[in-house]
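Standup notes, structure subgroup. Blocker cleared on the BES input:
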Amino acid sequence: MDLNVIHGAALKQVTPCLVMGVAANQLATPLLQKIDKALDGALARAVAAQEFSGTAQQTLLLHGSRQLAAERILLVGLGKERDITLESLRRAGATAAGQLRQRRLTDFTWVPADSPLHGLQAEAMASAWVEGLILADYRFERYRSADPKRAPSLKQLNVLTGRKGDQSAIKAAVQRAEKLCRGVLLARDMVNEPGNIKSPAFLAEQAKAIAAEVGLQCTVLDRPALEQEGFGALLGVAQGSIREPRLIVLHYRGAGDERPVALIGKGVVFDAGGISLKPSEKMDQMKMDMAGGATVLGTLLAAALLQMPVNLVGIIPAVENLPSGSAIRPGDILTSLAGRTIEVLNTDAEGRLILADALTYAKRFEPREVIDVATLTGACIIALGHHAAAVLGNHNGLLRQLQRAGEASGERCWQLPLWDEYAEQLKSEVADLKNIGGRPAGTITAAAFLQHFAKDYRWAHLDIAGTAWQEKGSDYRPAGGTGFGVRLLIEHLSQNLAQSS
Ligand code: BES
Ligand code: MN
Ligand code: ZN
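Run returned:
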């Protein structure tokens, strides 16, 4: 979708469709009154006939007139003014995108509301609309033949600003939103890519291509290099697949010699469970088990496009977890990069094994903080469902910052405790640790396992098992990979920059 910021009067815009949000208790703002007059009272009649009242997600399409240059106007209900949030505006953008697609209106003009909405800033509102429009319009169609019967994707979005003074601030805001969304869409594409295509080597090639495009440094460790370094836990998981593992390391430098933030993303390209094989029902969805890695690559892409003043290290351990004659067995003992030995009692608890080595590796970059993102436990879906990620870690300030960034971005996370008592569940009789803690508190014991390796730095762990993938589409998230975490992490990074300056 091409994006353009233009200046002018709404009534004079020549466009196939004007799109406007309307709050439920603001059906007669000056602009809406002007539009109604230009349409000879068509809006007032629709309201009187109870066809439109501005409740959230309700829409009304009216056709133009001699006094209205646009061919149509699409009104999208925003609900009561006092209930409007950035998230409800993203949803309104998604509703508009759906209506436009259905009607094959691929060129359109969005008009900001002419009255203040719940104290929200004009730039923030414009960003939210643009995010909703772009993210809702996404489809993964790489493997589908073209079909003229399918609704086309949106091509041209014009953002109309009324006063010249607003234009530059709004323009900057919507351009930021567009760059941010590129990171999200990259993450979605990677998650949706099928397992037969996306080997660890494929992920590494993709990371290199992105790095070359936006000027990131990218180094990739292959199996011999990982053996040499001693990535015993990661290699243990990888040994069941003929597709060899990679450790992808990316650097974004936007802040000179400042200490970096390290972002670690679980990159299991397919998780069959290994010898502790998963049930076959819905196993296809386990191509999404590299969503954490996709989020990290998407975040580095967005940070680079946005030229954020921060240093980032992205670390993506990429492996495939398959059963085979060479796979690890339950009962095997692995020696991790940290030197700690791990009794593998369930080969399906593989994410924590590869993350353990990645967390150890992160230390060498002397990070100011480390955030790992992983589709780590089914238990997280039981605890929080599909509406929030779990966040745990060793620094309460960092955890609170992430929760705040979650509220602002609409990618929420909720803290679970990491009390010492849970660590008891991981004690082994034959090794330093075992890789499962039994059924109680599965998300917490997984994090307690990671905590043994997240030493010497501030650390937060995001379990995105419930949020990285959607079986059915909703609001601005179509079915499949959601790209969850890119907007959350970019929001977190920019909030922290604001704090430290
Ligand atoms: N990748 C899965 C977790 C998962 C499940 C993500 C469902 C998304 C949806 C992870 O590797 C796994 O298999 N975890 C096990 C851990 C258990 C064996 C301790 C689980 O959650 O069942
Ligand atoms: Mn697993
Ligand atoms: Zn997994």
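Discussed briefly. Residues 2-137 form a domain with the Leucine Aminopeptidase, subunit E; domain 1 fold (CATH 3.40.220.10).
Next: hand off to the docking folks.
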